[in-house]
Amino acid sequence: MLTVALTGGIGSGKSSAARILEDCGAGVLSLDDIARSVLEPGREAVAEVAGLWPGVVRDGTVDRRALADVVFADPAALERLNGIVHPPTWREARRRLAGLEAAGCEAAVVELALLAGSGREDAFHGNVVVEAPFGLRIDRLERHRGMSREAAAARMDSQRDPLPLADLVVDNGGSPAELERRVRDAWRDWLRPYASNLLRGERTRGDDRRPSRHELGRAVARLNHWGVGARRRGDGIVAPAPVDREAVLRAGFVPAAEGPAAFVSASPACRIELSTVRDGAMG
Predict the structure, then answer these.
(1) What's the CA gap between 60 and 154, in Å, rounded?
(2) How far is the CA of 36 from the CAs of 31, 131, 280, in angstroms?
(3) Using an 8 Å Cβ cutoff, are 259 and 236 in contact?
(4) Of 35, 127, 193, 232, which residue has the fewest beta carbons closer than 10 angstroms?
């Protein structure tokens, strides 16, 4: 099953993009929704939050606005909260993804605000970043969430820029109709063919253009995340033989049908080949 991270700074419109992808046929998980469930009354995380910030928990219920006011004004506090909430959130996300795959889902999208710094930057087959101008995001947060400009800016400043992690960028600086067109184009031209290639176990759909340095770097990062030990060589990638085929698949590669390379990226965006070599030939 293709698994893709959908991210973007607060106010970028990633939730709108997620709804469109769900309408296209993707299985969608909201990591923020899962994280909220982790802080429901009676959950272990609530007691941990109360121990650190007793003023934000009343009668066993977390005052989420009060908690946000605390942690988004203090990077150390935000890091402590993430240490409480993230582990059970990711465990539940993995359980739900397994359920989607068992049900026959071909493409799953995990919507999340904080990909950069999560430790899972390279764990997905691809990362989609929704982007919008700073001023427009501030205006959206004021109009639709009732935030002050100061609070919105503080929330935005607390989030790391996800653009360096992007395999695909979706511009949401225009109208809702423009966003819908761009997301549906991404589904048709990238996500669905990518999922089809992975399902078939061969690259039958895609562009054969040479990859950019960024595209090669992203592919290497995913392979290394799954323990393959890859590096760039020219316009391709090499890894020491033998390789773990399951790890290579998790990184988005399938067996190559032609040429000397052992594997090729299932992504339809460009052709990235992975060759396996004796460890002494990796230099």
Answers:
(1) 28
(2) 9, 24, 49
(3) no
(4) 232
The DSSP string of 33-74 is: HHHHHHTSTT-HHHHHHHHH-GGGEETTEE-HHHHHHHHTT-
Q: Please give the Cα distance from 41 to 197 (Å, whole number).
A: 43
Global pTM reads 0.89
- 214/257 Cα distance (integer angstroms): 25
d(CA 282, CA 49): 48
Which tens digit of pLDDT belongs to each residue from 248-281?
999 999 999 877 889 999 999 999 999 998 865 5
Q: What angle do CA 252, 132, 152 make, to 5 degrees?
A: 115
| Contact (CB, 8 A) for 148 and 65 | no
**∠ CA 10-14-17 to the nearest 5 degrees?**
160
What six digits make up the tokens of 164? 């360096």
In angstroms, rounded to a whole number, what is the distance separating the alpha carbons of residues 190 and 106?
13
CA angle, residues 111, 165, 105, in degrees to nearest 5: 40
CA–CA separation, 98 vs 105, rounded Å? 10
Query: Among all chains, which residue has been given the structure tokens 């709108």?
Result: 16
Q: pLDDT for 155-171, tens place per residue?
A: 787 778 899 999 999 99
The token pair at 251 is 């990184």
Which amino acid would we find at residue 119?
Answer: G
Q: Where are the alpha helices (DSSP H) in 187-212?
A: 192-200
Q: Give the whole-angstrom CA distance, residue 264 versus residue 205.
A: 12
Closest to 127 in 3D by CA, of 24, 222, 199: 222
Q: How would you class 187 by CB atoms within 10 Å of its CB: exposed for 0-12, middle for 13-18, buried for 19 or more?
A: buried
Question: In 3-state terms, what secondary structure has residue 88?
Answer: helix
